[in-house]
């Protein structure tokens, strides 16, 4: 199977052009290629498929083989792949996802995509997932106990579920310890992506993320959007936010008039390769 290894701010996936390749068991292939010792090494698998309702379809799997409804860093890389590898010459494209059709603007330099702006759509407060105790115009603040400690979170969906938690010290967090306890907490029937955030000023936040199905990643596009929406709702930032992640910065804007979130960031090709997946059983 031919693949292309790409990343968005270090959130790396194995990309497969399924106009040419066929994958019969994506969850098993995702687990295999993601293994950083026995496979290629990645945060998951992203299949680029034909679509009946958009220019392309993004089918995304986490490293544990679970399917994600949407992937912000991933969809920017899909846009770069389809332009740079000649599947389109358009600089405005649409991509079908389980989280709805997304619309992307591509910036091209020297014939290659260097930056992508994604209309991430309408943020939803996860009332069914995390009971919201007040209307969205007020502070959204839900207590949750993990490891005997009470945290306060804001639940936001960007197609996939997120719990946003504000802390004073992001760097010192033991994510390996508390991350899985949030991810698998009984409050989250679909599990959860959890973002830990420190606000630097009204235009800048820094965050780390424990992703559902992949653990700590260097960046999370949908997570950065959820953090921006939560920070604006909690009156901690203005509507344009630079989100600083371990892998780099994303620019997020929540256009309250249109009620749509826009994410702008890079996409990078690392290498092309071929791997034998015929022996994968499970
Ligand atoms: N782990 C996420 C999917 C990947 C999201 C993230 N890598 C991004 O860039 O948005 C989930 O299961 O909902």
TrEMBL record:
Keyword set, alphabetical order: Amino-acid biosynthesis, Cytoplasm, Isomerase, Lysine biosynthesis
Site (Could be important to modulate the pK values of the two catalytic cysteine residues): 162, 211
Pathway assigned to this chain's UniProt record: Amino-acid biosynthesis; L-lysine biosynthesis via DAP pathway; DL-2,6-diaminopimelate from LL-2,6-diaminopimelate: step 1/1
GO cellular component: a single term: cytosol
Recorded catalytic activity of this chain's protein: (2S,6S)-2,6-diaminopimelate = meso-2,6-diaminopimelate
Name of a matching Pfam family: DAP_epimerase
Molecular function (Gene Ontology), one example: diaminopimelate epimerase activity
PROSITE patterns membership: DAP_EPIMERASE (PS01326)
GO biological process, one term: lysine biosynthetic process via diaminopimelate
Highest taxon of the lineage: Bacteria
Primary site of residence: cytoplasm
Residues annotated for substrate binding in this entry: 11, 62, 72-73, 160, 193, 211-212, 221-222
Family indicated by similarity: Belongs to the diaminopimelate epimerase family.
Protein name (record): Diaminopimelate epimerase
Native source organism of the sequence: Dorea longicatena
